[in-house]
Amino acid sequence: MNQIKTHIHVLVLIGLAALMFQSQPAFSQTDLNELRFTRATLIVRDLKTSAAWYRKFLQFKIEEYRPNKHVKMRNNDFQLILTQGNATLLKSQIRFKEGKKYINGITKIGFDINQFDSLHLYLERYEQKLAKDTYKDKNLSLNTFIAEDPDGNLIQFFDVPDNNTKYTVTPSFFTIQSSDYINTLKWYTSHLGFEEIEVVDDSNIHYQNFLKKDDITLELIHLPYESMETTEFMPVDRDLAMIEELTFKIGVAKNKAFELDNNGNKIVYMR
Q1: Does the pLDDT of residue 28 top 90, yes or no?
Q2: What is the domain count for the chain?
Q3: Domain that holds residue 43
Q4: How big, in percent rounded to 5, are the helix, strand and coil portions of the chain?
Q5: What is the CATH classification number for the domain harbouring 170?
Q6: Count of alpha carbons within 13 Å of 24, Cβ hemisphere only?
Q7: How far does Cα 174 stand from its chain's mean position?
Q8: Which spans of this chain does the record mark as coiled coil (predicted)?
Q9: How many CB atoms lie within 10 A of CB 153?
Q10: DSSP H or E stretch at residue 38
Q11: Other C-beta atoms within 10 Å of 21: how many?
Q12: CA 36 to CA 14: how far, in whole Å?
């Protein structure tokens, strides 16, 4: 009986691998005025480990590998840049000052997945850590779960089926934590054109809001006074493993309109 179960598990994994390695374009722009989420840059502790994770589970292909410097990866129109940190500190290793609990900044990126259950099973089978298992997001009306990459960065996946039989990964989501909530809300609505959507579930311990622009969702979380900036705790000679920069484009995108948001987060806008 155990041999039969093992055989079934092997067949399931083979099927999952077949799906995962037949990727479709991440997204295609149909309107020149459509905002696109085109790049994310992460500071990592170990290039090989992180590159292997994104290649295995998200099907990113390596474009350029420079040992001890960076790895450039791509899933069609979306680029991922992994930068080697210096004596990299993980968020789990942070020693917060007394009374501090949270960090301001970019804390999460997310993707629409058409093979949602298969990806979940794939991550689970290889014992990958989930920060939050599958649940229904009442505000977005989507099933979702949150995984952790090798450095503890939060990567959220949303169940968005389509007619493709091949695996698709579409960048669609990012999270900003800010202790300056009102001005951050104003900045993203005025500079990037995001609009608030109705919050139907406000059970979050801190005030949370969702904004949308085209097919991109911004989760904005208002942190209390117990939050702090990385400059308050990071040693000068070390880097923090984190989502360092996000890039968005409209149209042919030849010029940079700005490179920082009101909190100093690296939000690059190309137009």
Answers
A1: no
A2: 1
A3: 2-270
A4: 20, 40, 40
A5: 3.10.180.10
A6: 16
A7: 6
A8: none
A9: 23
A10: strand 36-44
A11: 11
A12: 33
